Here is the input.
Amino acid sequence: MRTRGEIKTKLQPMLLAVGTSTYFTTTRIENAIDDAYLAVVSTKPWGDIQKGFVTSTIANQNYYDYPHNCQSESIFKISVDGVSLYQKWNFEDFLREAETNPTSSDKRFSEYGRQLFIYPTPTLNGAGNLIMWGIIQATALTADADLTMFTDWSDVLNEAVLQYAYSDLIQSIDANKSQSAKARGDVIINSEWTKIANRMQRKLKNRVQFIVPDYFYTTSATTNRNIGGFDYFDLLE
Here is the structure.
């Protein structure tokens, strides 16, 4: 299956086994497929919905509005003036660090609502020098000829879309079958995501994969960090 129409063609006979064509109208089936597609897309940060957005820094401003079509709190990486060594922090920790360690040289960013916060605060007006990578909203299916984003690289995920749509449509008729269909869809999604994760792990890494708590950091004049403060740091700093 590659298109919404092909998913619908396979789905219709399955529905007629539990209901009538007057109950499962074409419009209802199409709406269920469209909703199921967006639901499957939202389950994982698939590569096709990761996107970079380019904007410019403003002198002495540390907060920036979220890009249009970027999902809230989904930015996972930024680059300022070609430097991408910014670590993502929880917003409360970001604020606390600014208060307790205002001279820190650690590059970090955080999010709150639909705003991005950066440290250190940019000191100059830039020109296309701030790049944010986040998760976009997938383009909805609106016609039978529309391809899903999975078609070209993992069309088995279109089967998950079918199972999700089937689950939704028969929920009021047979709850057990509905749950089973949803579970089959989840198995497909998790299986494909595991394959992607395994491929990513095999890629070359020139930085540590995780940021870890510094439980035993000693106080210094330059960092102003205390033992047991649970500050986070980059192992390669």
